[in-house]
Amino acid sequence: MKTSSDPPLLDQYGALLGKPSQIQDYHYEEIAECELPLIDLGGLRSCNDNVRQDCVATIARASSEWGFFQVVNHGISSKLLGEMRREEIKVFETPFVKKATCGLLNNSYTWGNPTATSLNHFFWSEAFHIPLTKISDEACFGEFNTLREVLQRFAAATSSIAQLIAGVLAENLGQPEELFEEICNETTCFLRLNHYPKCPKPGIFGLAPHTDSDFLTILHQDQVGGLQLMKDSKWVAVKPNQDALLVNIGDLFQAWSNNEYKSVEHKVVSNGKVERYSIAYFLCPSYDSLIKSCREPSIYRKFTFGEYRKQVQEDVKKTGQKVGLSRFIL
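User: That's the sequence. What structure does it adopt?
Assistant: Structure tokens below.
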């Protein structure tokens, strides 16, 4: 049953479904469930160098073969994750009109895809996109001050994990571990709160297929499921693990590593019976940061993060979808 907090997604969906030319886009398929590589980050803190190097190699292998993996013993307490979940639910339960108009969380609220012309470009979800620099700004949170306090702790913890993993991946390719600390920090990274309401129509995307445009993403998701990724040219469903955080490689790491690490296409499929929540941390550089391969001969030409984002936005505006790294191949 639709509530006052739900965005008017069904109205938008109905308009698209009413176009005969779009009916062919509407589809649903059963796919196999997979268990991603599960990595204990405690190995990176081991005094035994062999244990540590085995962990580094496992992370690098998962980044090359899957582009996705899960981590446990990551240092974020179940208590903090539970607090984050409760605060996230609370803010999404705010009436839609208020979310859309009151400037909440840096006026970052988005829902669906109002410009979609195809069901393949439509998605059944809502989100808050929060730059880390805004988390300390009380004016952005209004009555949700407890959310701000929890977000501060969650952001600090996930930032440490992201830098740790990025350092390991750099080390594996013979580069300085602290490389990404210099270009990815509080002024460039952000969090996104995601909510996928119950969807009365099966097969609709909660989030359309895409790759992430950052270096890497840390995701905390609930037990509902719905995340799918491309593996060996087939979609596979990711089995949720309540004890793990999910990590995926972004476009910038694929370009920087000269295709050693893979930025893999993924999507979220909506659920007709239960709603889904997640929160993602995106490790991003400044817009003027130059992305170039750490190995030669390079597959991609050099580009800035700002140039990459601009090209992605132009492609989405013209074609309805992201083109991504193929635009920058030499």
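The mean pLDDT is 92.
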